[in-house]
Specification:
Blueprint (H helix, E strand, L loop, with lengths): L1 H11 L7 E5 L7 H7 L4 E6 L2 H11 L3 E3 L12 E7 L8 H11 E10 L10 H10 L3
Parallel strand pairs: 1-2, 1-4, 2-3, 4-5
Length: 138
């Protein structure tokens, strides 16, 4: 259910000069094949808070899948060219903290792609997301 709705986001991302990709909340790695196909030579890592999901992902896609909280990324600053967040913000206790962390680990000029469910004003992260977009003039 998530893959078909996330593929338009993946198709819209700038992969041409991408060498490091972060898949935030990778779950079972369902989006990894599409990310890999879009950037064949990029180093790609998936993170998730659920070890059980990561075990499935590691077996299915055979790439680094790391147990990590999106609100406290254990990466140095400015290391990723691209970060994808597919249907994750509404799962997080503090979506703003996660967005700050993603921005921190993106290199200057790096791109974060986000997709979530519709325009339901009841989503916990929607108001925060809209505030952040407004703050940067998007």
């Amino acid at each position: 259910m998530i893959c078909p709705r996330a593929l338009p986001l993946i198709r819209s991302l700038p992969f041409a000069r991408t060498s490091r990709i972060l898949d935030v909340d990778t779950r079972t790695g369902a989006l990894i094949p599409a990310l890999r196909a879009s950037a064949l030579h990029a180093w790609l890592a998936g993170i998730d808070r659920a070890e059980g999901m990561l075990q499935i992902a590691r077996h299915a896609v055979g790439l680094p899948c790391i147990l990590m909280d999106a609100e406290r990324l254990a990466f140095q600053s400015h290391v990723f060219d691209l970060a994808g967040l597919a249907f994750v913000l509404f799962h997080l206790p503090d979506p703003l903290a996660a967005m700050r962390e993603v921005r921190r680990v993106l290199r200057p000029g790096g791109v974060g792609g986000v997709v979530t469910w519709g325009e339901d004003p009841g989503l916990p992260g929607l108001a925060v997301w809209n505030e952040e977009l407004d703050a940067v003039g998007r």
